[in-house]
Write a structure and sequence with these properties.
It holds the Pfam family HTH_20. With 248 residues, the chain is of the alpha+beta class. Helices cover 46% and strands 13% of the residues. Strand 4 and strand 5 form a beta hairpin. It is globular and about 55 Å long.
Length: 248
Amino acid sequence: MSTLTTTPTPVGTVPHAGADTDGTRRRVLALVASDGPVTAGDLARTLCLTSAAVRRHLACLEQDGTIAVHDAGPAGGQARRGRPARRYVVSTAGQAELGGEDVELATQVMRYLRRTAGDQAVAEFAAERNDAVVRRYAPRLTGTDPHERAAQLADLLAADGYAASVRPVAGPRVPTVQLCQGHCPVQHAAEDFPELCEAEADAFARLLGTHVQRLATLAGGAHACVTNVPLAPTTPAGRSRGTQEGTR
């Protein structure tokens, strides 16, 4: 009786067609979700793989329809000669592959709630759902610096499957960062019920203690949910500045 042995593919080598050692292809998809629009070179540096290996995975993901080219601009916004870098984002099909809650059942329940109890009941449900998020996250946001708190919030969201990251914004007079979510487990429900997105933005404001502005959502067709966060002094966790002023 023979024993089948396998030799792991060394890091940095190009896998043969169809191979996906240690879930590398899924790691590539997850990184495209969290960091996109992102180039093959960026992914190669993060994963410590060759660009050729990453391009092999990207080609398979693009062929499967799980990622798509976002634009034809050069990486980093710098003018360069030659062929511009391809920058990738996760497609709608890719969002489904990343997984999430049983959104079909959730959507059916919310439709029933709207039909039987009205729009106000849906808004109250969305608010209650995000109140629970605030209660769970608030004790874990220990940073006193606004940027640090935003980064902590992104880490908590990422752990819950939102592929979140914080990115600096160049140019505005008031220092600002963007909280980006490359995946949303309830995206398809939010397409029919924007109250979920509105309640989430309110939860972010309460957790960060500052006014936030939602610029784009996956439910609205963008490649990520993007929320502007001004780096102003924070108020106590779980309360927005506007809430404090309204109680004086």
